[in-house]
Structure formats: structure tokens, C-alpha cells
Amino acid sequence: MSDVGANSAGKAAALYDGAYAHRYREHDETLTNSAPYRGFVAWLQRVCAAFSHPIDALDLGCGTGRYFSALLCARTITGIDASAQMLEHARRPIGSDRITAPVTLIHGDLFSHPFAADSFDLAYSIGVLAEHAPLNAPLVARVHRLLRAGGRFAFSTVHPESPSVAKTTARKLARVLEPLTAGSSRRWLHARLMADGKYADERWIAELLPPAFAIESIERFVSEAHLHCLCVARKVGGA
Which residue ranges form the domains of the chain, and what is each CATH number? Predict the structure, then answer.
């Protein structure tokens, strides 16, 4: 596991303590009338509808299991999270009456847990990658390994132009300079703006995923907290 992955998991476990997890789960109950939540659910359901068969799904950073009920075509659901307290609430997730697939919960680090190769048809993550954990080349390679041939990787990111991202002087300057540069200088400035994967825009995603994945869609989405990118990509290669 990389130091970045270990640090991300440790920070998440510390942040989502018992009190926070309880408040988070209470907030789940208010989401029925939330347009951003319904938007995430509809997007995930469209991802599921692209499969012609029941799927084995993996939620990377599942938290309280907020999106389990959106997986209408799931044969099995596996959720992994660094916070044991969040996982306790995931045993009774929102919309549990609509979940028909068996759910397995894993307390662990998505960067290092020993999943077997070719275990899942769908790996998805909402509100985790390029937010609490980096979206980078090691993570992409890991997801590619655990997906079956033709499997899909669906995820949200925080876009660097999100109002939630602090507009520091350095960030403003880099944004101005980036279009004026080329080659390695421009790539370096762009990586700095993405904080090496802690944020991700369309260009970062489009350069990071191929050739391991063929991108099927990238769209912008506004939630209660952030401007996001929503990406769906299909695994290339494999058995």
C-alpha cells in the first residue's frame, strides 16, 4: 500500500468516529427529497442498466451504505470502508427494504485489501475518490485488476473548479498560467491544480484511465457540497 493510501485510510477512520457516523446516518433519513441524492441514485441506476445480467458490485468507501438500494440488478453487494463506525450503520442502510442482494461489509483500506482478481462486474465510489482518497494510477490499476472483463468503474470526483475548493493565490496563479504553458510545464501545473489526484477534472480523468479503461461518459454534477465529475468507464482487456 502506498503512503498516500495509508494516510487517506487513517484520516477517514479518524474523521468518521462514532459521533460523526451517527450524525451521517441520521442525515441519510432526510435524503428522500434531496435532488442531489436522487441524481446520484439515478446515475448509478443508469450504470446498472447498462449490464445485461445480474452483477457483483463493490462500493469503494461505502460509508453507511447510502447507495446500496440503488443497485437494482445486483446479485451481491460488497462494501468496504476504513471506518468501523460507519460500517455499523451500513448494516441498516437507508432503503434497506429495497435491497434484495446479500451484502458483505469489510472494514479495511480500499488501496490494500486483498480482493481476488476478476471478482466484480462493477466497482463504484461516490463522495470518496478525488475527495477523501486520491484518484491516481495505482488506484486505477487496482480497480482494473479486480473487475471482470467488460466490468465498469463508476465514480464521482470533486472538480477543482468546485466552489468548495479554496481559491488560494497559488491556485489562482496556476489557473492563469496553465493555458500559457505547454509540454511538461503544463502537465506539471495541471497536476498541481489536481493536487495529484485529490481533485479531478475531465482532463485528469481522460488522461488517467486509458488504456486500462474506455471512458463511456464524463459529466458534471452539482451536489449539496461540491461540483463533481461523474465518470463511467469500461474495463479494457482481461479474461
Answer: 3-235 (3.40.50.150)
